[in-house]
Design goal:
GO terms for molecular function: acyl-CoA dehydrogenase activity; flavin adenine dinucleotide binding. The chain is built from eleven helices and ten strands. The chain is of the alpha+beta class. A four-stranded mixed β-sheet has the order 1-4-5-8. Strand 2 and strand 3 form a beta hairpin. The two termini are 35 Å apart.
């Protein structure tokens, strides 16, 4: 068992770490205050050929592996989790379904511009009444000649304001339940399609989170992604990959919180010495470092399994669950180590804490992850 990163993975990590520290981190606090979406960052990432990193070169991608994708998400999130989640959603939710289930024609038409960074990727799954119960989709797509007519609402959709098209789920046959859900690629400028970005969020302020309104939106029948009725199965597979991205985000945020707490503990003096010399603080920092390392290894294992073409549903759920929960814990302890200063914006750990909170909700709540793990370990066998 070899835990050494490859030469290529190290090069990607070094490239993205330098980029994140030089281009992403400096404006993170300002963007958190204003909510401004950093389009210029993703334009620069496109120039660095990162926007299609894990996809084949023939589609404009970088031909890299899933571990490299996880490394990029971690490094971006260490600097600014809003940038991390935008990138993770672009790759794992926007581009991945088209790569996994699209026809060659669809890949050339839609995946290539995603990989080139000409548009951001998004995926329309969650609805006001269908979050954890994604099988409860109410958006409909009715066949009318050579077109689908789509009606419905989606919520909490990442990147849609900057996406020229996205795949979304809709019921194409009500009589078949979950097997009647399909995925369809829809241009965001189609008549009757509205994207609303009015949410006021606790954290991840400069990421784009939207509501989608579809009123008699018409798209050609060839925009069906994969086979009719396989949308439920497709988004389950999509979420497996997305959970690796959320796990990597959690590791990046936790790493940033740990680094700030350690630096503060070394310079903050109480009772005549740095507080890092107090065993209570040392134990907090030791636990933080240990849990971050465990979470990183879990994320890398899930990514490695995916790259090997082996089942990774259980490992992705475990990585996402553990990493997201320890991320919240690490950020909590980082604030505690900072004391009153941790409650203030100047020291940034309060931003990390707010950003961390989504990770136990998005891509399936912690409760859903435990359900997935329980199923995978055989709890539901008769």
């Amino acid at each position: 068992m070899n835990f050494e990163l490859t030469t290529e993975q190290k090069m990607i990590r070094n490239l993205v770490r330098d980029f994140a520290e030089g281009e992403v981190a400096p404006g993170a606090e300002e963007r958190d205050r204003t909510g401004r979406f950093p389009r210029e960052i993703f334009a620069k990432m496109a120039e660095l050929e990162l926007m299609g990193l894990p996809f084949p070169e023939k589609y404009g991608g970088g031909g890299a592996d899933t571990i490299s994708f996880a490394i990029v998400v971690e490094e971006l999130s260490r600097a600014d989790a809003s940038v991390g989640i935008t990138y993770s959603a672009h790759i794992s939710l926007g581009a991945a379904p088209i790569y996994l289930f699209g026809t060659e024609e669809q890949k050339q038409r839609y995946l290539v511009p995603l990989c080139r960074g000409e548009t951001l990727g998004a995926f329309g799954l969650t609805e006001p009444g269908a979050g954890s119960d994604a099988g409860g989709t109410r958006t409909t797509a009715v066949r009318d000649g050579d077109e689908w007519v789509i009606n419905g609402t989606k919520c909490f959709i990442t990147n849609a304001s900057y996406a020229k098209f996205l795949a979304l789920t809709a019921v194409t046959d009500k009589s078949k339940g979950k097997r009647g859900i399909s995925a369809i690629i829809v241009p965001t400028d189609a008549p009757g399609f509205r994207v609303l970005a009015n949410y006021e969020k606790m954290g991840l302020k400069s990421s784009n989170t939207t509501e989608l309104i579809l009123e008699n939106v018409r798209v050609p029948v060839e925009n069906l992604l994969g086979k009719e009725g396989e949308g439920f199965k497709q988004f389950l597979a999509t979420l497996d990959g997305g959970r690796i991205g959320i796990g990597a985000m959690a590791v990046g945020i936790a790493q940033a919180a740990f680094e700030r707490a350690l630096a503060y503990a070394k310079q903050r003096r109480q009772f005549g010495q740095a507080i890092s010399r107090f065993q209570a603080i040392q134990f907090k920092l030791a636990d933080m470092a240990m849990k971050i390392e465990l979470a990183r290894n879990m994320v890398y294992k899930a990514a490695w399994l995916k790259d090997q073409g082996r089942p990774f549903t259980k490992e992705a759920a475990m990585a996402k669950l553990y990493a997201s929960e320890i991320c919240t814990e690490v950020c909590h302890q980082a604030i505690q180590i900072h004391g009153g200063y941790g409650y203030m914006r100047d020291y940034q750990v309060e931003r990390l804490y707010r950003d961390a909170r989504l990770l136990e909700i998005g891509e399936g709540t912690s409760e859903v992850q435990r359900m997935v793990i329980a199923r995978e370990i055989g709890c539901l066998d008769d």
